[in-house]
Specification:
CATH superfamily of the largest domain: Alkaline Phosphatase, subunit A
Structural class: alpha/beta
Largest sheet: 9 strands, mixed
Number of strands: 19
Number of helices: 17
Helix content: 25-40%
Number of domains: 3
Strand content: 15-25%
CATH topology of the largest domain: Alkaline Phosphatase, subunit A
Radius of gyration: 33 Å
CATH class of the largest domain: Alpha Beta
Distance between the termini: 28 Å
Length: 492
């Protein structure tokens, strides 16, 4: 009975923002730098809907993982793992065991790329974990719109709803994506409790027009209107009040200079290496892959301005990047604002802005806006939020057990609404229940004591009635024989 009461006492804590029936929508706006809001305002552009969500919830600058590339960062959000642990280390990379190359435009559905390279560690995106956690009476379904890895079957499991990544869906406008995800939440037969939406802007525009261009800032205004449509549709379907919304990005963006381009064939024999990557970050596999060739390539590139060059074993620990077989013997990363290429070609097209640089650069950092019952109101975090911590936060809100990961919920607990704030009434009930339980225990103890005293008195009276030839008001002498009641006679 006491255990039953204690179980009932725990209910208020489960009905708050991180209950098992919570709804969560995660949105990524690719390449949205954390300070685009300020840049837009300075240039006379506005983001009223994002500003509204920011004032209603929390805002933070996010430190993305290294390499600061689309697939690597998005998969870290989905798993809470650094790229060295989830295996998607770049948009393009080579696996020496598979003797095969991953390209983000071609290998989106192959499980072998998305399950990590360590057999002892589970790599499972949060949309699958959410659906597997069917331990409540509430439906648990995920809907994922074009997030990296969303088309991969994990032990035959796929999200209930997902969009196939092809030419028809890649260029769909934001409003179409928004309507689709809201319809998945509002579905009467199998509504999702967790939705994920990816938008490839303003990354694409930012690459070709720069971070401060009118084209990029106009695209940001367009995205803000899409957020306004989202809020309107959620309210229309009576979903907004109980919806937790996280809007973030994978990485930032840096303007590059046309005179800051390194051509590797000016320094290396092209026959001495194979290159996997792009103009900001790439892996070099020496040919042949021996110590002499590795040292030769490293020494020559290490002296070139505009490049950071690392032997695999010397990659800084803060990158959390070197412990994976897909990280090849030499890593080349351009310094801020620089680019590199194999060789100079007249038809080579370089972007105006790019990413993939050191993740300690503020220009590389995306943002976080989070609003809903789970989050504090009008709160700005003055510390960097680690991208891998978003996974732990989402699991907490959804009420599911996270898989082993590199995140830490304690680092971002200041963003979350506390139980004390949201369950003040529940704690009053807890106190009352505790008083009732304590009173009941004391009353029970008193009743048992009274019954025992009454029973002893009855026994004593019966013993005296069974004594024979005992004169009244005389004390028993030492030779007197005491006559006790049989056990059958003692029963009341």
């Amino acid at each position: 009975m006491l255990a039953r009461i204690l179980l009932l006492m725990s209910i208020p804590a489960l009905t708050g923002a991180h209950s098992t029936n919570a709804k969560l929508l995660l949105i990524s706006l690719d390449g949205f730098r954390h300070d685009y809001f300020e840049i837009a305002k300075e240039r006379g552009f506005s983001t009223p809907h994002l500003d509204k969500l920011r004032s209603q919830g929390v805002f933070a600058e996010v430190q993305d993982v290294f390499l600061t590339k689309t697939f690597a960062c998005h998969y870290s959000i989905a798993t809470g793992l650094y790229p060295e642990n989830h295996g998607i280390i770049h948009n393009i990379f080579y696996d020496p065991v598979y003797n095969d190359t991953f390209e983000s435009s071609k290998n989106k559905k192959e499980y072998k790329w998305f399950n990590g390279t360590k057999q002892t560690r589970l790599v499972e995106p949060i949309w699958i974990t959410n659906q597997k956690a069917k331990h409540t009476i509430f439906p648990r379904w995920s809907g994922v719109y074009l997030w990296p890895g969303s088309e991969v079957a994990f032990q035959q499991d796929l999200p209930l709803h997902y969009a196939v990544w092809d030419k028809t869906t890649t260029h769909l406008p934001f409003d179409v994506r928004v309507r689709t995800i809201v319809n998945w939440f509002a579905n009467e037969e199998a509504p999702i409790n967790f939705g994920i939406l990816y938008m490839p802007e303003p990354d694409h525009v930012g690459h070709y027009h720069g971070t401060h261009s009118n084209e990029t800032l106009e695209k940001i205004e367009e995205l803000d209107k899409g957020i306004g449509l989202l809020l309107s549709l959620l309210e229309e379907h009576h979903l907004l009040e109980h919806m937790n919304i996280i809007i973030t990005s994978d990485h930032g963006m840096v303007n590059v200079e046309k005179d800051q381009i390194v051509y590797l064939n000016d320094h290396l024999d092209r026959n001495k290496y194979n290159l996997y990557g792009d103009n900001v970050a790439a892996f070099l596999m020496p040919q042949p892959n021996d110590e002499i060739t590795r040292n030769e390539i490293f020494e020559k590139l290490h002296a070139v301005p505009g490049l950071d060059v690392y032997r695999k074993e010397d990659i800084p620990d803060r990158y959390h990047f070197k412990n994976n077989r897909r990280v090849l013997p030499i890593l080349v990363v351009a310094k801020k604002g620089w680019l590199f290429a194999d060789e100079k070609r007249d038809d080579k097209v370089f972007t105006v802005a790019d990413h993939g640089y050191d993740n300690k650069l503020h220009e590389m950092h995306p943002f976080l806006i989070a609003t809903g019952p789970a989050f504090k109101k009008n709160y700005t975090a003055y510390h960097l939020v680690q991208q891998v911590d978003l996974y732990e936060m989402m699991c907490h809100i959804l009420g599911i057990e996270p898989n082993p990961n590199d995140g830490d919920l304690l680092r971002i607990e200041d963003l979350l609404e506390t139980d004390e704030d949201e369950d003040e009434g529940g704690y009053t009930i807890l106190i009352l229940l505790a008083v009732i339980v304590f009173s009941a225990l004391i009353s029970g103890i008193c009743c048992v004591a009274v019954c025992r005293v009454y029973r002893v008195n009855i026994r004593m009276r019966r013993r005296f009635l069974h004594l024979k030839d005992f004169p009244p008001n005389n004390r028993l002498n030492e030779t007197s024989t005491t006559v006790l009641l049989a056990e059958s006679d003692e029963e009341i």
